[in-house]
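Subject: design request, 312 residues
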């Protein structure tokens, strides 16, 4: 049985950048969801350093409590780990040192934006990993009476979701699907992604956490606790727009902090970059939209013609 963690986010309303809500009733909405998958390679980009948390009242104490809750929420969202909310370094951090801006919504929610570099340093000090902003879109196939409940948990975890029909087509040969079969007051959950399948039993919230925990284990490995220098040879530089597109692609990835070009030989460019994680994680993130594809290793003793090929 899945362990259920109670959170204060059940009343949260959806944020469109994180949740695409369509239910099961509208074929037009479902078509829009599938179009989104096709356009992004089943990938969505999460706004990592902005969270929305309940605000109990209008006093300074209420605002202070909400800011502390926002501090815990951003740690969960960025690290991909539920336990980050209770990490001593996070719990003991002064939110005022990390929050850059905040506002109150008409629904009495506190919207807080954080200093990304400061939060990253805190998570590293806390020994927590980093889940890059480029995340698979999870299609949920389950008859959930109140979608706002799992949507709130998805928002808290930074898990992009869409409500899907069971026969939604795969994109790029892989998709993230969370299927729930009602069983009494709960569901039998199955989450599948890239040939991997995990099962659990629990509430709608538990199903979302199952998906988020599984994806975080893949995309937020221990290697993301620090930065790694990589030197890679990337082919496909046949035209000047290919070269410019590659640099824009690499510099746009949230796990990449620096990109330097070392050489250009024919259609192969050698780049040196700094990433949160390692080469394997870079390949997983790049594969979400398919533009950067790893090439087979070179024969033993031979220098690789290229490590990746760029396909704009």
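Subject: RE: design request

Done. Sequence follows.
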């Amino acid at each position: 049985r899945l362990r259920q963690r109670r959170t204060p986010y059940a009343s949260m309303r959806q944020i469109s950048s994180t949740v695409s809500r369509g239910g099961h009733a509208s074929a037009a909405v479902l078509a829009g969801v599938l179009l989104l998958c096709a356009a992004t390679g089943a990938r969505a980009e999460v706004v990592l350093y902005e969270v929305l948390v309940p605000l109990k009242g209008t006093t300074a104490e209420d605002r202070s409590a909400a800011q502390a809750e926002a501090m815990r929420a951003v740690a969960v969202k960025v690290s991909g780990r539920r336990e980050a909310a209770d990490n001593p370094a996070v719990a003991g951090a002064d939110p005022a040192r990390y929050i850059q801006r905040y506002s109150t919504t008409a629904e009495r929610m506190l919207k807080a934006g954080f200093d990304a570099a400061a939060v990253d340093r805190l998570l590293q000090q806390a020994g927590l990993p980093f889940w890059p902003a480029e995340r698979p879109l999870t299609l949920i196939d389950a008859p959930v009476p109140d979608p706002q409940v799992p949507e709130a948990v998805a928002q808290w975890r930074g898990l992009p979701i869409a409500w899907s029909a069971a026969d939604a087509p795969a994109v790029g040969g892989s998709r993230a699907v969370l299927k729930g079969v009602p069983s009494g007051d709960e569901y039998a959950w199955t989450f599948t992604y890239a040939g991997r399948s995990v099962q659990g039993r629990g509430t709608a919230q538990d199903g979302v956490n199952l998906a988020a925990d599984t994806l975080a284990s893949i995309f937020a490995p221990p290697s993301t606790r620090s930065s790694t220098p990589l030197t890679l040879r990337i082919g496909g530089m046949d035209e000047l727009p290919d070269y410019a597109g590659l640099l824009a692609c690499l510099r746009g990835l949230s796990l990449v902090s620096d990109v330097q070009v070392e050489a250009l030989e024919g259609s192969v460019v050698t780049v040196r970059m700094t990433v949160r994680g390692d080469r394997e994680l870079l390949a997983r993130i790049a594969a979400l939209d398919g533009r950067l594809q790893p090439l087979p290793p070179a024969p033993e003793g031979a220098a690789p013609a290229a490590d990746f090929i760029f396909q704009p």
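Residues 1-41, 166-173 have pLDDT under 50 and may be disordered.
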